[in-house]
């Protein structure tokens, strides 16, 4: 077991979250050694009904998000059960929930109540739009958060396609983990917990720091194909090869575009790096160029040039690649599940695989 898997040893987390963002955040905390007790309603987490099933009929997505956790079902509408839950909060370090704002308070276990029971508790609410504002109690999913923050407009191009994996969901989970770790660090100094309010729609704003800064200076909001990240630059996009595969060129900045042009035998392209966006004429020339080569020919020609060129791999190809195998961050657990592990090596060791989730009627370990 890597040292990574013991960093948060002794930290106890009550995970009342559902679907993806909250359980993903709690999973990462569990990867660092925290003890996670996932509290579900009597019907369980709705994620159990989404996605494919394994050979035994069990939900694959649910198991992936909750590996290493203990699962307990509790009816918080029941006064006696609610009293028992409040006792659990007294020995917890973190409470993570993903209900709409106000739900926990209506159940009688909101921040004001649990913080009185345990002033050291770090309470993290991860909701769609945060606790205030006109959309605070509105329903939403990842597509809605991206649509309302300018991202889908730049990236959708009218195709109807959304992102896979979900950008706002996962950004929200990561910011929740960062905030929780920071709050625990402060609690070590002050002895007091705090209430953290994170909206999934808010979590994508820091990811747009370039675009927002540009808008702030120029008052201009670029449309699809008007930035190099969105198919506007010939030197930063994917191309289709003669045998039907895609290859990715990411020759942004430095010497990479020059190296690519030289390896392509097209030195006249070098000076066109600064053509105004969208570089449709240059893109058309590169489209024609790559259409004349097979993927293997492209790899043989451009990978040695060190020009930020890669083939576009399927998931199966990516998992089987030498790089993925060497990093050992996608591995099978002893029980057989293929897992994506915390992406960090510590002291030369990758993280350990996770045990399967297990049901319990108990609380935290003594």
Largest β sheet strand count, sense and barrel closure: 7 strands, parallel
Note the run of SSEs as H and E: EHEHEHEHHEHHHEHHEEHHHEHHEEE
Helix content range:
25-40%
* Secondary-structure class: alpha/beta
Q: What average pLDDT do the residues reach?
A: 95
Quaternary:
single chain
CATH class of the largest domain: Alpha Beta
Strand content: 5-15%
Comma- or semicolon-separated keywords:
2 domains, 15 helices, formyl-coa transferase, domain 3, single chain, alpha/beta, 3-stranded antiparallel beta sheet, 12 strands
What do these coordinates show?
The chain has 366 residues and is α/β, with parallel strands linked by helices. It folds into 2 domains: 3-206 and 334-359, Rossmann fold (3-Layer(aba) Sandwich); 228-312, 2-Layer Sandwich (formyl-coa transferase, domain 3). It is 36% helix and 14% strand. The chain is built from 15 helices and 12 strands. It has helices at 21-31, 60-66, 79-90, 103-107, 111-117, 142-147, 151-156, 167-190, 200-203, 209-218, 256-264, 280-290, 295-302, 315-320, 322-327; strands at residues 12-16, 35-40, 70-73, 94-97, 122-127, 194-199, 236-240, 246-250, 309-311, 330-332, 338-340, 358-359. Strands 6-5-4-1-2-3-12 form a 7-stranded parallel β-sheet. β2, α2 and β3 form a beta-alpha-beta unit. α1 crosses α8. The protein is globular and about 75 Å long. The two termini are 22 Å apart. The model has no long low-confidence stretch (mean pLDDT 95).
């Amino acid at each position: 077991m890597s040292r990574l898997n013991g960093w948060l040893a002794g930290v106890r987390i009550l995970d009342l979250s559902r679907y993806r963002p909250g359980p993903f955040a709690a999973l990462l905390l569990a990867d660092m050694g925290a003890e996670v007790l996932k509290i579900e309603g009597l019907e369980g987490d709705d994620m159990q009904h989404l996605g494919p099933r394994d050979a035994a009929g069990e939900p694959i997505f649910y198991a992936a998000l909750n590996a290493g956790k203990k699962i307990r079902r509790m009816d918080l509408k029941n006064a006696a059960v609610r009293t028992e839950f409040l006792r659990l909060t007294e020995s917890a370090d973190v409470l993570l929930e993903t209900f709409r704002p106000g739900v926990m308070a209506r159940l009688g276990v909101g921040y004001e109540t649990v913080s009185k029971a345990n002033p050291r508790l770090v309470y993290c609410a991860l909701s769609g739009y945060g606790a205030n504002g006109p959309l605070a109690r509105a329903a939403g999913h990842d597509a809605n958060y991206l649509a309302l923050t300018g991202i889908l407009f730049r990236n959708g191009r009218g195709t109807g396609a959304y992102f896979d994996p979900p950008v706002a969901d996962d950004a929200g989970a990561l910011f929740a983990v960062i905030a929780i770790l920071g709050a625990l660090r402060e609690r070590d100094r002050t002895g007091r917990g705090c209430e953290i309010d994170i909206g999934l729609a808010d979590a994508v704003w820091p990811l747009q720091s370039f675009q927002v800064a540009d808008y702030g200076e120029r008052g201009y909001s670029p449309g699809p194909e008007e930035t190099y990240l969105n198919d506007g630059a010939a030197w930063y996009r994917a191309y289709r090869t003669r045998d039907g595969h895609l290859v990715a060129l990411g020759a942004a900045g430095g010497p990479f575009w020059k190296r690519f042009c030289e390896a392509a035998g097209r030195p006249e392209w070098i000076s066109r790096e600064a053509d105004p966006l969208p570089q449709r004429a240059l893109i058309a020339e590169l489209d024609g160029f790559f259409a004349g080569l097979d993927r293997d020919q492209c790899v043989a020609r451009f990978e040695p040039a060190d020009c930020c060129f890669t083939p576009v791999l399927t998931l199966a190809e990516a998992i089987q690649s030498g790089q993925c195998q060497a990093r050992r961050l996608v591995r099978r657990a002893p029980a057989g599940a293929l897992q994506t592990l915390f992406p960090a090596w510590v002291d030369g060791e990758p993280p350990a695989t996770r045990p399967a989730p297990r049901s319990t009627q108990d609380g935290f370990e003594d």
